[in-house]
Structure formats: C-alpha cells, structure tokens
Amino acid sequence: MSHSISRRLFCGVAGAAAIASGALARLPAAEPTEVNLLVRGDDLGAARSINAACVEACLKGICRSVEVIAPGPWFLDAVKLLKEAPQIDVGVHLCLTSEWDRIKWRPLTHAPSLVDANGYFHPRTRASNNAPPASTGFLDSSPKLDEVERELRAQIELLRKHLPKVTHLSAHMGAATAMPELKALTQNLAKEFKLRLESEGLPADRPLKHVPGVGTSKQTAKEKEDSLLEFIAKKQPGNWLLVTHPAYDDAETRAIGHPGYENVAADRDGITQMLISPRVIEAIKFAGIRLISYTDLA
Fold this sequence. Notes:
Elements (H helix, E strand, L loop, with lengths): L4 H5 L3 H11 L11 E10 L3 H12 L5 E4 L6 H9 L5 E6 L50 H18 L5 E4 L8 H13 L3 E2 L10 E3 L10 H14 L3 E7 L6 H4 L9 H12 L2 H10 L2 E3 L6
Parallel strand pairs: 1-2, 1-7, 1-8, 2-3, 3-4, 4-5, 6-7
C-alpha cells in the first residue's frame, strides 16, 4: 500500500502534538506493579519514508523516542521534521555500518579503517559466513579506536548542532558497543556529552527489558498488531523497551533491502500501522500502561 508522506504525517498535528507532549511529562517514582513502555523508532536519516513514518508514529501513535543516523543521506530532512515536533525525544543512533545494497552512507570524518573499497561503512557489524564476501564486517576490518572515537564524536556534535535537546545515545546494529573497548569508548562519550547510553544507569531491580516477539519481519501487519495487543493484555510490571523501525510501503522503501531481508517496505509499513493502530492505543489506555521516553528514565 502506497502512502502520501506529507498528507499522512501532518494531518491533525496540533492535536496529536498536544497528546504527545502530555505523555512525555516526567513520571513519578515507579511502583512495583506499574507497566512502563518505551517505544523507540530507529534509523531516521536513512530514508525520507523512515523519517516521516517515525515522526507520525510519535505524533499519532505510541512511539516516544527516535534515533537519528547523522551520516544518513536524509539527515537534514529528519532534522527539519523534528524541529517541527520539539516534543519528541531524540537520540543519536551512533552509526558505523551501512547495511543496504542500493543505498549507502559514509563517515563524517576521514576514517580509512572504517570503510570499504568504495569509501562506505561496511554493511554489517561482523562478517557472516552466510553472506559473502567475508571482509564485509566492521569488526573484521581492524577498526582503529581513534578513528571510531573521532567519527562518533562528530556524529554527536552534528546532531546537537541542529537539535541541542538530544538526550541519549544508541548503537546502530550494535556496532558502537560490540566489543569491550568500543563500549568503554562510547560510555566515555556519553559521560562527556552528558547523555544516557541506551538504558544504562537504571536501578538493578528496574531494568529496561526488551519486549519479546512483537513486530518481527516474519509477521504480517495484522500479526504484528496482534502480538503487541497480546503483550499489552499481559500487563507485566516493569520497564519495557520496544525497538521498532517504522517506514511506509512506497517506491523508496521497495528499493531498500539486502539478501535475507527483501520485504523491507511491507515489513516496516506494518510496523507503522501497528504503532498508530487505534486498537493498540485504546488497549494501552485501558491497561493503564505508561508510555515513556528516555527522558523519563532520568
């Protein structure tokens, strides 16, 4: 199903913005029986369709935090949309990989050890035996820590230049925290810039747990929605994180993919529909589940 990005995104923005801003208010101390749900939309900057769907999922749905890839080709479009919706919680999606076959992005800095023969980030965090050539993994290319630090620092500074309200860091495809040395480097950057790294720093008895089995690429759009409704119905106490990748099924996303993941457009459109589903929104309200952002974890 094809969608008009601008028509769908900004229909009723004023009312939706008021709802979202209220939901982003700082939460009181959590009670043991409370269910807090942090829904995150990843990969803004990678495609225009992704940018628009993530913002719509926040303004009209249940998403409360978004992650921006600063080297992405549609970075400035993401910045524009987020400036128009300042209530959305924003994080730097620290990026050291570029996974798609037909669209790529490069480092912001001079970083020879982080790129392939064409100057792009490697497509995956670690080389896969099932996806030759074997030299396509970031970790397998002997990345230099000083180049990683310079690049990640540049990504943080670029996003903060445009959106000073950035609150946290996350790792695209896990690359920026995939080894102890990388994780320590990223933790130091988080401290330096006074940003939260993922869900670190939470009390041991209130961790941020991943929602299991919801919105997988093997599920149809209806199965995605049903899986989330099932999770909501269980009302399991605690802090929960649902990492999602919204987009629309359009000409842009139909051209995006890689071996083993060819149904990107349909899959991510199903995610968008799940996040803005009236049934899901009503079920969350009925269950008394609190929608939170990374800001609320402070």
